[in-house]
Give the backbone structure.
Amino acid sequence: MKIAIITSGYLPVPATRGGAVETIVEDWMKVNENYNDTKFIIFSIYDKDAEKEIKKYKNSEAIFIKKNGIINFFDKLVYGFAKYVLKKERVMSYRYIFQRLYFLNKVSKYLKKNNFDKILLENHPTLFLALKWRKNYKKYEGNYYYHLHNEQNKLYGCKDIIKNCKKILCVSSFIKNNIKTLTGKADNVYVLKNCVDNSLFDLKMSDKEKAKLKEKYNIKKDEAVLLFTGRVSAEKGINELLLAINKIKDEKFKLIIVGSFFFDTNIKNNFDTKLKQYVDKVKDKVVFTGFVKHNEIAKLYNISDIAVLPSIVNDAAPLTILESMASGLPIITTNSGGIPEYAKDGCAIILERDENLVNNLASSLSLLIKNKSKRNEMVKISIKNSRELTLDKFYNNLIKELK
């Protein structure tokens, strides 16, 4: 079976520059190496490191689409206008508009000229333009599928095409209900739960290795280590977290913030300026690592005591929750989107997103910092939960749905 996977057109696959969806696709590629009946053809934006990485896979290949200088010029122009003139907060939405249209047009041509058994579109509804253009939706009728990771509020003129997917596979029931409402159709919508590569996060580091890594980030032996991973943006609750940190006076701890505003890119926005103001108040308690490659993040999980992800928007199924469970960490998070469907049965303290969030974050962090026995109870449940969400199971469930 030959499956064409259409990725975002933002970041490359293999996931050499980060990205949750891109990482998931690469995880499938890794498992697919153990089988010989499925070939993945990945449509990806070009990246020289990704071009090298793809050579490691015998059952996957990539069709890399290179952007040209003109595309890059117009994207920078639009991005600059959105940032400096319109002063948009969600400025990353304006960074790759022309690149993605160029990417989708190229993908559309490939789909028209070549034949694939199945088409799998990853996440954003605009990807369906590759099927809409040149009427590819007719050519692949009954053989195109949608893997949906995020809450959507519009379908960009592709409602009928999306509605007629063979199956829409959603990362949580929360997302399932969202897309059912948008399309008005329910009989082709299913939940396919996310997983991560547990073996990557079940890392055994020696005390010496841990001490060396802590020393790198100026973390003292008697400090509890709090970990925030992911995109450093307002919707992930980073402001609320820093305000909460400022309220904790008597405990010894260090907060590691792993990530950049938009993965491994130079995109900045007005939020960064506000963020620095909060950081200045707690700079002796916070370490910013910037973007860290996925295969290195496991080491930071390994030296941490508590994972915290206080999302203030509807997060569908953040991989950081799964990574935290696989790493055996207690979690502090919010009642956001699909998070409670994963962080359940006592592995997490789940807070409401209300006016008390900052105070509740501070008190929950204080509780776990000083209560090691409580942390140990939550650790056991995290590990148990992660064993139910293995990468092999994820891959096999995907192939089952596509067949």
About this structure: The chain has a mean pLDDT of 92. Residues 2-192 form a domain with the Rossmann fold fold (CATH 3.40.50.2000). The longest helix spans residues 69-85.
